[in-house]
Every structure is written in structure tokens, then in C-alpha cells.
């Protein structure tokens, strides 16, 4: 019979947790100290908006429908350029959702952004009883002063009032045009 040391049991008790700690440390990967030890913060997640391609009017469209198509595209261009006056020049003073509310919301959005983009894809144009409707999908992004990006996508039916000389945006259905909040 061999003599057992009184420390053998204690050694086993400490050896098992130490071995387990070593195994867990190995699974965690290498450790470093100093400046390289500080991990870089994860990159800010960028909004993912599917790519939308601009569309061109089909040849069979009449002059009024083609003009309405262009008006919607130009609304997007004015938004992207940050040109509130050009945008509002295409809107009727009788805009159903309130011209002054649109003007204030648009100007506030443009003033609180550093850069903007807008892409418009017209899906359908129809004329009926002095009104022209343009169904369009759009994407837009706004770069805020802190560098964050507010990207949105929507589908809007733009309703234009037809006059002898122009088409003016009178109303819309669906998403607010270019996600201009407050209208």
C-alpha cells in the first residue's frame, strides 16, 4: 500500500479548475495588452435600401403624361439639390395637406441636413378629369449634421392639377413624398 500525501487531494481540487480556466482561455483567443488591446468600435450599421433605378417615360405617353412624369422626377432632383424653391414651385398653393406645412417641413429637413440623394422610378401615369396621377417608387437619403444617414424608401401616387400652362402637385396618396415628415 502506498502512502498518500495529505496535499494530494487538495492539489486535485485546485488543478481541475485551473485546467478548465486554461482551456476556456484558449477558446477565447489570444490576448494582447497595450494600445492594440483596445478593440475598434464596430462600424456604424448603414441603412440598407435596395437599389432603385430611375426610369424613362415610354414613347407611347402623351405630352401631358410625359410632363407629369418629368415633374415627379424634378421634385426628386430639387429635393436632392436642397432647393426648396424649385421643389415648392411644382406644388399648388392649394396643396391638400397644407402648403405652409409642406414648406415648413421641407425647409426644416433641408436645413438640418448636409447632403441628400433621391432616386425616382415612375411606375404608372394616368390622366382623368383634369387631374394627372403619377405612381412612383422612390428612395432618398439625408446626411444629418452628426454624419448619420437617414435613408428611406416609399411609394407615392402624386396627384397633379392640370391647368392650361402647368401641372402643380395638389395631393398625394401613400407615403409622404421623399419622407418629408409633417405633411
Describe the protein:
The protein is an alpha+beta fold and 183 residues long. The chain has a domain at 64-179: Nuclear Transport Factor 2, Chain: A (Roll). It is 32% helix and 27% strand. It contains four helices and four strands, in the order H-H-H-H-E-E-E-E. It has a four-stranded antiparallel sheet, with helices on one face. A hairpin with a 4-residue loop joins strand 3 (149-162) and strand 4. It is globular. The N and C termini lie far apart (93 Å). Mean pLDDT is 81; it is low at 5-43.
Layout: helices, strands, pairs:
Blueprint (H helix, E strand, L loop, with lengths): L7 H21 L34 H19 L2 H5 L10 H13 L3 E14 L2 E13 L5 E14 L4 E8 L9
Antiparallel strand pairs: 1-2, 2-3, 3-4
Amino acid at each position: 500500500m502506498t502512502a498518500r500525501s495529505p496535499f494530494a487531494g487538495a492539489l486535485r481540487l485546485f488543478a481541475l479548475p485551473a485546467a478548465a480556466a486554461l482551456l476556456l482561455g484558449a477558446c477565447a483567443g489570444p490576448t494582447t495588452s497595450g494600445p492594440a488591446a483596445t478593440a475598434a468600435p464596430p462600424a456604424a450599421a448603414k441603412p440598407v435600401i435596395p437599389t432603385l433605378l430611375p426610369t424613362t417615360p415610354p414613347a407611347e405617353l402623351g405630352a401631358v403624361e410625359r410632363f407629369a412624369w418629368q415633374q415627379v422626377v424634378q421634385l426628386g432632383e430639387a429635393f436632392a439639390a436642397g432647393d426648396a424653391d424649385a421643389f415648392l414651385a411644382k406644388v399648388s398653393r392649394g396643396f391638400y395637406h397644407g402648403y405652409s406645412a409642406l414648406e415648413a417641413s421641407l425647409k426644416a429637413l433641408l436645413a438640418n441636413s448636409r447632403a441628400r440623394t433621391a432616386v425616382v422610378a415612375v411606375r404608372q401615369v394616368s390622366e382623368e378629369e383634369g387631374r394627372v396621377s403619377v405612381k412612383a417608387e422612390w428612395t432618398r437619403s439625408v446626411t444629418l449634421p452628426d454624419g448619420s444617414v437617414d435613408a428611406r424608401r416609399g411609394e407615392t401616387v402624386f396627384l397633379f392639377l392640370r391647368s392650361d400652362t402647368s401641372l402643380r402637385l395638389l395631393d398625394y396618396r401613400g407615403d409622404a413624398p421623399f419622407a418629408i415628415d409633417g405633411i
